[in-house]
Each structure stands twice: as structure tokens, then as C-alpha cells.
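Thread: quick sanity check before group meeting

JM: Hey all, I'm pulling together slides for Thursday and realized we never actually wrote out the predicted structure for the chain we discussed last week. Dropping the sequence here so it's in one place. If anyone has concerns about the input, flag it before I start.
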Amino acid sequence: MTVVPMPKRAKTANPVANPHEPTARETASQAAYKKRRESTRPVPQMKVSMSEDGGKRIASLAVDHPDPALGYELLAEAVGADNGTFLAGTLDSLAKVAQVGNVVREGDMNYALSMVCGLRPKDQIEATLGVQMAAIHIATMNSAMCMGEAKTWELREAHERALNRLSRTYVAQIEALKRYRSKGEQRVIVERVNVEKGGQAIVGNVAHGGGVAEENDR
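JM (edit): ok, ran it. Output follows.
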């Protein structure tokens, strides 16, 4: 499968006989896209070079940025890394996610990296979970592809089971991320309050000590 990347706007282009006039909806969507891009962190991509060393395939990773030192700092900020060791381990983990056989696919690695950065991790735990989520997502898509290419019902059912397990794992990861970001915060929502004659309603945060119901609650 060949994926055609989003084309970059050329500085100069040949005039078109009948240029397309964007509709109002297209213009609004384009403006929303630009606004969303401007609110995201700058994230350089990674370059992957494959080489041979003693009969082994070696993948070399390098940041694709005019100033490599700045590029790695931008990556560290984007993945919530506190140090270079964690950043190097994160990039190595993403390379494993993008590895097929003994080849690390550059496009898949940058796609996985974009998923992690898209979560806007605030610390290294969120970044690690993001890497795992990227791995599960890519594995899910590969299982879906294998299921579609299966030649027998046995193989199709095997890939379908794997697809279902991976999909459930991804949902569980999303819930884990939500719980971690909430930091255990609990909220109580009162849908209706009845006040008897002579009673008094209290609006605000009410704390009960020891978990024992108050007399008026019984």
C-alpha cells in the first residue's frame, strides 16, 4: 500500500486555467485547521537510515531539523521528557513499533510519534502510555489488514480475535490515561434536593467526617 503524503504548498506555482474557488465551508474548515496547527507544539520528524554491519541490519535515527540540538529539545518537550535518556528510549521504542522484519519504516515511526505528541503528554508516564497506545493502534490496523487478506475461515477468525483483543486494550488504555490525568479526583453530582418545611438547603461543598451519615441523612 502506498500512502500519498499531504502536498506542501509551493512558493511559486504555474497558473491554472480555472482555479478552484473555495466554498464558504471549505474556507472555514481551512481556517480551523490553521488555528489548530498554531496551537500545537512544533514537533520535528525523525529520519531513519538502514545499514549493514556484520550481516545485521542497523537502523540509525536522527532528528530532521536544521539545528539537531534544538530539534531534540523540541522532541523532548513534545513527549514530556525530563532528560535525554528518556527521550532516546522513547524514540527507540517508537522504532520498535515501526519495525517490520528487520526494517524500521520511517513513515510508521513518524506516524507513531505524531500519535504520542498528539496526546500532549505532561510527564513521562503519560508519554510511556502514549507509546503503548501507538503500538496497540498500529497492531490493531495490521490485524485488520491480515483479517481482510485471510484465505481461510480459521485464519480469519484468529485475526478477528486478535483484533477484538487489541481494540479492547486500546479502550482500556484511554480509560487509564483519563484516570491518571484526573489524579483520583472524585465528583458528586446532586440531581435534586428536597427541602422539608422548616429545613435548610446548603449549597456548596459539604464534607462528612469518617464516612458516617449525619443524623439528617438517615
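AS: nice. The two ends are 66 Å apart (CA to CA). The chain has a mean pLDDT of 85.
JM: adding both to the slides.
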